[in-house]
Amino acid sequence: MGTGHGTRVDYVNYDVIVVGAGFAGLSAAVDLADRGVRVLVLEANRHLGGRATAYRSSVSGGSIDNGQHVLFGCYHETFRFLRRLGVDRDVELQQTLTVDSIDTDGTLTTFECPHLPPPFNLVAGVFEWDRLPLSERVAMLRLIPPLFRALREPTCELDWVSADETVSVWLERHGQGPRIRQLLWEPLAVAALNQQPDRAAAKSFVRVLSALCGP
């Protein structure tokens, strides 16, 4: 951890200086330290984790997440890092994908996938979601072919998805309506990719979505 203002640090005693104690900085520092490298981590804030943090609300007293961060079970390198730190047992994962959201009329709605083989778990969850019109539930079937293909080719580069295509364009091309995009696909894209759907790469979204609904 970095030191505060006014504290002198003898940088000669370190081989590498990592600026920033977010996930990337801490992961790099741990890997270097495991190789015997003398590492100094500098961080301006008083907490570790960078933007992946939370703060206490002065109004409700509850904990508020800083941003749309989400931890999916398919984040293999993240969990490898947490295991290395010995804190992976503190992470509680959902057995099935469950997403709570507030609709535009203020109604709390829950999307939940049943225990079925992928990607039928995702399809069944959409068909059981009563906040969507029937036409948009049926349109979900158009995502089965690309998800099946991505599941069969977990290590491929997804060359059949254009590198220039955004999540928004990809969803529109596959007939996904405005309601399911607003309530499910777009929040998932922001949470997983940290970018708005009109900027995030469709290739990354397809990979995350297939891994998310996978075994």
TrEMBL record:
One of its GO terms (molecular function) is oxidoreductase activity. Gene3D superfamilies: FAD/NAD(P)-binding domain. SUPFAM superfamilies: FAD/NAD(P)-binding domain (SSF51905). Transmembrane segments: none annotated. Coiled coil: none annotated. Residues 23-130 form the Amine oxidase domain. InterPro entries: Amino_oxidase, FAD/NAD-bd_sf, Zeta_carotene_desat/Oxidored. This is Amine oxidase domain-containing protein. It comes from marine metagenome. The lineage of its organism: unclassified sequences, metagenomes, ecological metagenomes.
